[in-house]
């Protein structure tokens, strides 16, 4: 396989992500096979020995994430990937990584759950990704791609954000984005330089010792660490919100969708507009930090939000918080690996706009 | 603190001091605990070999969770049972450095059994120091995988029952069979002679690590005066009479036995 600089290729999402990671200067990858993300590990075990870095198939996701902890603590640029059940196994380690403020990139190619579930796409891990996932008060920075191109681009963005804030960053993808093939343009290899940070445990040559821990037995100290983390998350919320809008300027009903459903909803907006319904779309790109402000601003001038997700209704709670009662927030979801069609969402829109809007909240 | 003490000894010769590879922090270990001795000997070897700037240690969850407070080297504190996975991550990205994990029996032989076996089976070029005192010390004296038959602990108050709890896990014998293990030995720190042998085994292990031929594993049969509910002196007799028959000292695998 050719590995030249900037170039356009037709690739699976998982492979594009893996190729992007090498080009982004990945030092080490530790992972474990699980459908529908195994191509990441397969691609890297094939490519890395011929190029640069470390790749290791671990005995479990539990081992993978703790190898990530060790290598990130030693100052390397590191990544792991998995799918939902495997990501659940990693949660303890992710909590330690967040607490010890180690930069790393985590990729969840989500499949339908709960339990062993299905290998088909889902967004059922939104809560896990955006609300912490493991124990304690912590946040991941979460990027939600909606194309194979973004499976590539967000690897670069993910490493940048992780290193800027010393915070684990997650790409929350899904089984369809991982498996489908699209055109993807790759940035040049080596375009994201990386220096070993001063805090890394590399041997105490010429300096005082470094140590990495998440243990703080004094409650005053543990509270201070927590306050520090919360201040960091607030800074991230102030500076790193990303979203896209489509046809929202004159919209009366605004769809909110991330990842794959955002593409379905873009088509729905076009279909609705053809029928004279003023529909628009907001696509959150960062799920944490969540684009609260744009949704709050829109909620004051539109009639409805319709949140569309591949789950039982998870992001819809964040949209409700942002709307804060200013307008009704509706939900359309599919689960278990099922995907809605643009026409299904249009049908939902038609049902909503045909209903009379209550003059006073709660009044029939 | 130590330096102050030395300065006060005006006109006298300092014949012994702790290694510079130990910090001045007071250790939190109970009086008579083997951890303090094991820490000191380990750090003496690091100092004598002059590798303190090229070594990274991994502390476990257990009584030695604060090892990074005492060892004056770069260290990481791992999640419970995962020290050898963390050490793998470090060693893979820093292949020229010395890397060790320091783990207790609950950490290494219960919750971390999978990581222990697979790290050694991959022949990771690290040293694993395994402190076996047959009990969970930090959480208050519960039964460990290595607790002896009939041993009374806070979770085996009538004594460890083989039918109910299974057998004391001889994980060192188990891993000695793995081709990835290069040097496997069982030592102790309860007598001057065992301390000397432990120190020699540590030197061997760090020398072997340079060869990149596989994992070095040193079990240290140790004590737990608080958990065993004994005086430190009584624990020494218990080690001799109860622990060592189950966990006999000596080399289980030395490099001449290796085919690689």
What top-tier CATH class of the largest domain in chain A fits best? Alpha Beta
For the sheet with most strands of chain B, the description reads:
7 strands, mixed
What is the approximate shape of chain B?
globular
Q: What's the pLDDT, averaged over the residues of chain B?
A: 95
Task: Give the uncertain stretches of chain B in residue-range form.
Answer: none
| CATH fold assignment of the largest domain in chain A | Rossmann fold
Note the beta-strand portion of chain B.
15-25%
Quaternary organization: heterodimer
- CATH homologous superfamily annotation of chain B: Thiamin diphosphate (ThDP)-binding fold, Pyr/PP domains
Strand content of chain A: 15-25%
Mind telling me which CATH architecture of the largest domain in chain A this is? 3-Layer(aba) Sandwich
Calculate Rg of chain A over CA atoms. Answer: 21 Å
Tell me the structural class of chain B: alpha/beta
SS summary, helix count of chain A: 12
Examine the secondary-structure arrangement and name the CATH architecture of chain B: 3-Layer(aba) Sandwich
Summarize the structure.
The complex is a heterodimer of chains A (364) and B (260). Chain A has 364 residues and is an alpha/beta fold.
């Amino acid at each position: 396989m050719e590995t030249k600089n900037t170039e356009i290729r037709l690739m699976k999402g998982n492979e594009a992500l893996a190729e992007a990671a090498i080009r982004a200067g990945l030092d080490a990858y530790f992972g474990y096979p699980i459908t529908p993300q195994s191509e990441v590990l397969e691609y890297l075990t094939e490519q890395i020995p011929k190029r640069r870095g470390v790749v290791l198939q671990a005995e479990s996701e539990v081992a993978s994430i703790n190898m990530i902890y060790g290598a990130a603590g030693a100052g390397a640029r590191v990544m792991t990937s998995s799918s939902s059940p495997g990501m659940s196994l990693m949660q303890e380690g992710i909590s330690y990584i967040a607490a010890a403020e180690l930069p790393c990139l985590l990729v969840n190619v989500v499949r339908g759950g709960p339990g062993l579930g299905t290998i088909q796409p889902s967004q059922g891990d939104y809560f896990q990704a955006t609300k912490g996932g493991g124990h304690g008060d912590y946040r991941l920075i979460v990027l939600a791609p909606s194309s194979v191109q973004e499976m590539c681009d967000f690897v670069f963005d993910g490493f940048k954000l992780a290193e800027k804030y010393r915070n684990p960053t997650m790409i929350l993808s899904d089984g369809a984005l991982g498996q489908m093939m699209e055109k993807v343009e790759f940035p040049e290899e080596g375009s994201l330089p990386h220096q070993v940070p001063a805090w890394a445990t590399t041997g105490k040559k010429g300096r005082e010792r470094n140590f990495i821990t998440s243990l703080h037995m004094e409650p005053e100290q543990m509270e201070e660490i927590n306050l520090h983390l919360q201040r960091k998350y607030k800074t991230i919320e102030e500076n790193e919100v990303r979203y896209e809008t489509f046809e929202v300027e004159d919209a009366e009903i605004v769809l909110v969708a991330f990842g794959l459903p955002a593409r379905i909803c873009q088509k729905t907006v076009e279909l609705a507009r053809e029928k004279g319904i003023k529909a628009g779309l907001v696509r959150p790109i960062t799920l944490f930090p969540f684009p609260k402000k744009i949704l709050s601003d829109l909620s004051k001038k539109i009639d409805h939000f319709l949140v569309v997700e591949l789950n039982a209704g998870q992001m819809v709670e964040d949209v409700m918080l942002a709307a804060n009662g200013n307008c009704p927030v509706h939900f359309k979801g599919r689960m278990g690996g099922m995907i809605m069609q643009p026409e299904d969402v249009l049908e939902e829109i038609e049902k909503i706009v045909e209903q009379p809007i209550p003059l006073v909240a709660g009044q029939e | 603190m130590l330096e102050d003490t030395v300065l006060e000894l005006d006109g006298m010769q300092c014949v012994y001091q702790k290694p510079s590879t130990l910090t001045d922090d007071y250790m939190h270990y109970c009086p008579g605990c083997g951890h303090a001795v094991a820490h000191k000997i380990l750090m003496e070897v690091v100092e004598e070999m002059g590798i303190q700037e090229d070594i990274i240690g991994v502390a476990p969850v257990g009584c030695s969770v604060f090892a990074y407070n005492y060892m004056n080297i770069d260290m990481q504190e791992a999640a419970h049972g995962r020290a050898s996975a963390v050490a793998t991550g470090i060693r893979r990205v820093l292949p020229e450095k010395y890397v060790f994990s320091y783990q207790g029996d609950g950490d290494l032989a219960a919750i971390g059994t999978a990581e222990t076996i697979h790290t050694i089976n991959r022949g990771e070029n690290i040293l694993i120091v395994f402190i076996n005192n047959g009990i969970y010390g930090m959480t208050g004296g519960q039964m460990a995988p290595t607790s002896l038959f009939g041993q009374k602990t806070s979770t085996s108050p009538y004594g460890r029952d083989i039918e109910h709890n299974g057998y004391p896990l001889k994980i060192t014998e188990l891993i000695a069979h793995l081709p990835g293990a290069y040097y496997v030995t069982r030592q102790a720190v309860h007598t001057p002679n065992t301390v000397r042998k432990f120190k020699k085994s540590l030197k061997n292990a760090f020398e072997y690590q340079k060869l990149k031929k596989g994992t070095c594993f040193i079990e240290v049969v140790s004590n737990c005066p608080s958990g065993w509910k004994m005086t430190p002196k009584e624990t020494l007799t218990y080690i001799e009479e109860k622990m060592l028959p189950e966990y006999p000292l000596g080399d289980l695998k030395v490099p001449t036995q290796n085919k690689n």
